[in-house]
């Protein structure tokens, strides 16, 4: 628990991130969890996944930009990714972070950036998934989700099971017929807003998943935890939810054994495929989820 907190704290240290991202060890480090540095490498992974009957959601790494120009650049990079994917007939969605689209700089510019991307995605027949960041962003993120849904109807929200508020948020999103991706939550949160114990997070995840199976629209269950997946698949079966009416989402590079089993069972599986150069905070969150990965990180750094 302490190690996880330290890793999540380190994920917010920009100076360290810049040093690690530009170090010689980076090539080896990123290979396990990140599709590559360029759009071409990201698309290469999506192509390979398509051949294995697996869907993708493409994430261009980056968050907490500090200028309107950076935000616009991120939005344009996503537009280019959408156009290139459509030309390559890859039916992937995109996953974005609002702080990468300028939420901390100007809410109005962020809104404009998101609407432009959602409009393009709609014209190409795909969807924008809006990742959920730390708890201070939840209200503004859900508000952006709702306005995108009203205008373009092609957005998916993300709800984190570790937050106390999530049951109410899921009820509201189900009422508004907005698709939800349910995850456990990856940020360092205070005990005033989030369950500090993993057992409680897991229990809440299953409870929220039950609601999505019963009332959700095209729900996505994002987890690598078999103790979550088994009851969800059973419950979907009991409720006669067709296998193409929901999806399981996992992160690129994690639990390929489960991924193969899901595909073999005929389930819809979508992998979150991150690419780009600003990979440090993403990687640190993955280490925070499984500190055993730290050994891998240290070995790579020592070898470089
Ligand atoms: P848990 O952490 O309990 O892990 C269960 C098992 O999965 C572990 O025992 C291990 O085998 C494996 N595992 C999990 N993480 C691993 C890792 N990093 N390396 C190796 N093995 C690992 N969070 C958020 O706050 N906002 C968001 O928008 C998203 N979006 C998102 C999209 C998708 C597609 C996924 C899969 C996850 C997210 N997350 C997220 C992250 C999520 O909140 C959570 O931190 C991770 O998924 C880990 O939780 P699990 O449900 O896998 O369970």
Describe it for me?
- The chain is α/β, with parallel strands linked by helices and 304 residues long.
- The chain has a single domain (34-278), classed as TIM Barrel (Alpha-Beta Barrel), CATH 3.20.20.220.
- The chain contains 13 helices and eight strands.
- The protein has helices at residues 2-10, 14-21, 26-33, 39-51, 68-87, 107-123, 138-152, 166-175, 198-215, 226-238, 256-264, 280-289, 293-303, and strands at 55-60, 93-96, 128-130, 155-160, 180-183, 220-222, 247-251, 269-275.
- An eight-stranded parallel β-barrel has the order 1-2-3-4-5-6-7-8, surrounded by seven helices.
- α1 runs antiparallel to α12 (280-289), α8 (166-175) runs parallel beside α9 and α9 packs parallel to α10.
- The protein starts with a helix and ends with a helix.
- The model has no long low-confidence stretch (mean pLDDT 92).
- Dihydroflavine-adenine dinucleotide binds at residues 131-132, 158, 160, 183-187, 222-225, 249-251, 254-255, 272, 286, 289-290, 293.
